[in-house]
Design a protein that fits this description.
By secondary structure, this protein is α+β, with helices and mostly antiparallel strands. It is built from 3 helices and 8 strands, in the order ββββββββααα. Bound molecules: zinc ion (2 copies).
Length: 185
């Protein structure tokens, strides 16, 4: 859905849509598993720069709700994730920041994005907001044991034989130290 300032006059545009899985390609390890609900409104904001120039911004306020599946960072098992967030963003026409005039909205006040002349693509905004909401590192559980580096087996499910055979060299050194002490006493 493309939004242009012309769509927002005389009245704001109200948004109430459901995006089916597959409409937005999120990321290779992020899969949408339910319709993604987007509810909110788009408004037009006028920014006056100097005595003459008026810039038309698009303000987008909406709530996102939907279910996703992420992959555990260690064992790659799927993890259910529920996106449920509200955002309030302002988009300026791209290429319109060349001259820093007096701005009605400063960068510090709110997050500023940009839209192309053809309009603001709502799906792009939704995609970015979902990706920003994801946890830095998703784990299926705090103590996930991950995959065996040797056979690739999931160590949460199977204790593979390789793990017994591989002895950390540091442990070997400690064991040797213990033996010396035992002998010395
Ligand atoms: Zn895991
Ligand atoms: Zn193994």
């Amino acid at each position: 859905m493309r939004i242009t300032p012309a769509d927002l006059v005389p009245d704001p545009l109200s948004l109430d849509l459901q995006l089916a899985p597959g409409v937005i390609d999120f990321a290779p390890d992020v899969r949408q598993t339910s319709p993604l609900k987007v509810r909110g409104a788009a408004d037009r904001i006028e920014e006056h720069i100097g005595p003459r120039q008026v810039v038309e911004d698009i303000r987008l306020r909406a709530t996102l709700k939907g279910d996703f599946e992420l992959l555990c960072a260690r064992c790659l098992d799927p993890i259910a994730y529920r996106a449920d967030q509200t955002f309030d963003l302002i988009f300026r026409p791209s290429g319109n920041d060349a001259e820093a005039g007096e701005r009605a909205i400063s960068e510090a006040e709110t997050e500023i994005g940009y839209y192309e002349q053809s309009g603001l693509l709502l799906e792009d905004v939704v995609r970015e907001q979902v990706l920003l909401s994801l946890p830095d590192r998703s784990l299926c559980r705090e103590d996930c044991k991950g995959l065996c580096a040797h056979c690739g087996g999931n160590l949460n499910e199977t204790a593979c034989n390789c793990s017994d055979e591989i002895v950390d060299p540091r442990w070997g050194a400690l064991q040797g130290l213990g033996a010396v002490r035992a002998d010395g006493k």
